[in-house]
């Protein structure tokens, strides 16, 4: 059976995806500047790429657009826990 897709629904999904990606990119830029501002990248013992992993953990758990502040706070918390652990 051929797949029939509602074009309006498809357009909405594409628009929502693009909007979500722009929010995620802005949040990641904010976290990268926070990392530099707090000189976390100067810590030689810190795991490489850990900030992105922290953010991805937060983004998977708190995925809706409205939870931007919670995602950022969660990613920062995870990053600080990793600094303490390392």
From TrEMBL:
Keyword NADP: no
One GO-annotated biological process of the protein: diterpenoid biosynthetic process
Keywords: Metal-binding
Single GO molecular function: terpene synthase activity
Highest taxon listed in the record's lineage: Eukaryota
Stretches assigned to the Terpene synthase metal-binding domain: 36-86
InterPro entries per record: Isoprenoid_synthase_dom_sf, Terpene_synthase-like, Terpene_synthase_metal-bd
PANTHER family: 9-BETA-PIMARA-7,15-DIENE SYNTHASE, CHLOROPLASTIC (PTHR31739:SF22), ENT-COPALYL DIPHOSPHATE SYNTHASE, CHLOROPLASTIC (PTHR31739)
Protein name: Terpene synthase metal-binding domain-containing protein
């Amino acid at each position: 059976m051929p797949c029939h897709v509602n074009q309006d629904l498809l357009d909405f999904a594409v628009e929502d995806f693009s909007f979500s990606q722009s929010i995620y990119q802005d949040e990641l830029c904010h976290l990268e500047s926070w990392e530099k501002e707090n000189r976390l990248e100067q810590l030689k013992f810190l795991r490489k790429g850990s900030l992105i992993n922290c953010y991805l953990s937060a983004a998977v758990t708190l995925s809706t657009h409205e939870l931007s502040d919670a995602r950022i706070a969660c990613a920062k918390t995870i990053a600080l826990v990793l600094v303490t652990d390392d």
